[in-house]
DNA sequence: CTGAAAGCGCTTACAG
DNA sequence: CTGAAAGCGCTTACAG
């Protein structure tokens, strides 16, 4: 039997209401009473029942992270863990607990989120990805639930979101290669249903256009966030008659696949092919050669998402702040892209 | 205003008790009533309030993962995410939600766990690591809370735990090198306060002893689960007058650091130094050369931990099953250790 | 500054 | 098979 507010009240010779007020640091309580009650709580080993509190206060001080099943294969574990670390750290600082949930498919995801939100178990949710036409986003938006998207929504532009400016980031990566003299630049994209794939493709195209360079449809391939995709893209590119001299890659993991393939075929990076990728995972500076990569501040994305969501929960959806937060990115130039074509 | 059991009851013309019974599939309820009530629940969009249910049933159907702050730097993100995926998947299958918590230090960790457990917010906790003299373990054990350790406890041998047989695994790795003819084998360990470091060191020592090989104190270095540690260990070893020809490494990330250092100094793997490490993260087969590594089934460790904990919660700490579960490991031999010394 | 009372949304013996 | 009642542990107007 756990000790309750009543036990404390009895022992302290006050009413349960008073104990409750001491607990929440109610201003109109005498310092004397407060101290006495606190001492007794300590002595009895009292711990407030979070569920009971939640039931009456109609707030849970918890948020939920939705981890899409598909993500397990799509993205790197590193990416998600870093995001989670950021989310949990900031949530914890603001007094919130974090629930982590996943579904085997979109239907399960909606059901899970619905159960948690409608069942009053969490106050809001963080979505770690953005697909086009996402039923989870539809559900959350329609029912007016507090949520934040790490990424961008195609359909709902004024949704709460935290994102990289992927168009700009990709523009920067491509521009960097152009400035080295490359004129034939390829792009390995991610799954086309992800908004991030679209955005990065767009930035790439724009950079080419601004530089007056041609874009060839066969220089753009779609894949997954997997080494295999990189490997396959590599062998495709290397067999092209007029192949690119540089590549922009949707993810470091894809780059690793390319690096391995190139190594097997005895090609050299950056001499035979320059590479720039995204995410700047720690191993990207350890590969041979070290990989140029766009650091998107993953931890910061998670941290900010937490912050923004909890703020919105507390303000009850008050729209007084920025709906869309952009986390700055930074191109980390390493050996994989220091070879100038002009030289 | 959320729709409650009362609303459903009123609309269905039954009592709240009956609705509650329908909800929990109580056997003594007529199919007719049940169907009618279920239809109304659907129609009204009823969702049971998890907190209210929890309050009266005194069970939360949630478990908590304690993510130690120090882990953020010590272990690879990959390792933790994989563990979490396993935990969440199995918990979700068994109808449990997963809370993820962390603390900046041991004190905060104990406080967090205490708040969650005593506050009746979670039914049990999973610890992702094992230090010697861990106050969190002390707390959990003393208060008789359901918990499972992923790893091994020095002090409490009969605690619920899921682990790799690290002594055997390390023995296997070392033995593999010995079978290739190596006689001077070094070991790069992790932080000495972690039980895993001790166990792996022990297996290494045993394999040497069994083969009648000498063990040199200077062939054993301690570090962190970081690339830097590998890098430093590498430069230490390579400057030794009578240096090892092979190394057993506590973690793949350490191996990457070594690989990088060796590459910079123009040494070759496996010709100049053979390597075998632990964890078999996906990138280990992508490095140059691909890394021999012990696969410890990380996902399986998490999955099983979830299973075991929830079972123990449901059986109310019934001791009818194995207290310590061992997840099988497997040595993945790759290029980094295929060089025979005898050849 | 403090207490009595009602109530959050559910479950579960106890009757019938 | 179903209902009325009590209660889980807390909070919060309403009084005083």
UniProtKB/TrEMBL annotation, chains A, B:
PROSITE patterns: HTH_LACI_1, HTH_LACI_2
Every HTH lacI-type domain range: 3-57
Keyword Nucleus: no
GO molecular function annotations of the record: DNA-binding transcription factor activity; transcription cis-regulatory region binding
Keywords: DNA-binding, Transcription, Transcription regulation
Protein name: LacI family transcriptional regulator
SUPFAM superfamilies noted in UniProt: lambda repressor-like DNA-binding domains, Periplasmic binding protein-like I
Entry-linked Pfam families: LacI, Peripla_BP_3
Originating species: Paenibacillus lentus
